[in-house]
């Protein structure tokens, strides 16, 4: 499924909540009792995979559609590279701390948390830039791309169709698609249960892209890979 700006924002919320728990702003931290391993785990296993997915689903999409002599997402990619570099630096410090004699642990712990706090500030600023600049741009490009292609696609408006008939008609329309084709579903509510049904019956075979998400009308482009 293609990521939408709404999905990315929701994941950002989860990441920030965990970041605030592990690296609170201006913390009254007891360095010796905090957990460096948990911070490294969060960075490696949650934040960086999210960053790599964003490069594929957001940055590459923006750069492909914005015609410029340079990649407009270059500064964001540099942020990711810095976060990756600092993650490995913190992982090395955490390893040293775990093996250090007690006389050296306090100094190493203080160094780890100072650098972790600085990285936390970079991550918060990076997410804010995405929220205020790049996700709105992604949404604008999606709308523009949809306007260019909708005339060649079937529009299936099920708002006046009895609910018991809707899913059957939607799947009939999908089955008529050739690979690479799509239709636009228009509905009066978020068709999220329909997505789960597609996921169960056509895993890996379909695409699902929100074009409009309420509050009155929902429009989704559903395609066959």
Give structural attributes.
Translation Initiation Factor IF3, 4 strands, 6 helices, four-stranded mixed sheet, 2 domains, alpha+beta
Q: What does it look like?
A:
This protein is α+β, with helices and mostly antiparallel strands and 225 residues long. It folds into 2 domains: 5-146; 153-224, Translation Initiation Factor IF3. Helices cover 64% and strands 11% of the residues. It contains 6 helices and 4 strands. The protein has helices at residues 5-22, 36-65, 74-99, 102-149, 163-175, 192-201, and strands spanning 154-157, 182-187, 206-213, 218-224. The chain has a 4-stranded mixed beta sheet, sandwiched between helices. Helix 1 (5-22) runs antiparallel to helix 4 (102-149). The longest helix has 48 residues, at 102-149. The protein is elongated and about 75 Å long. The model is unreliable at 147-151 (pLDDT under 50).
Task: Give the % helix.
Answer: 55-70%
Please report which band the strand proportion falls in: under 5%, 5-15%, 15-25%, 25-35%, 35-45% or over 45%: 5-15%
Secondary-structure-based class equals alpha+beta
Q: Which overall shape is indicated by the principal axes computed on the Cα atoms?
A: elongated
- Major sheet description: 4 strands, mixed
Please give the alpha-carbon distance between the first and last residues: 11 Å
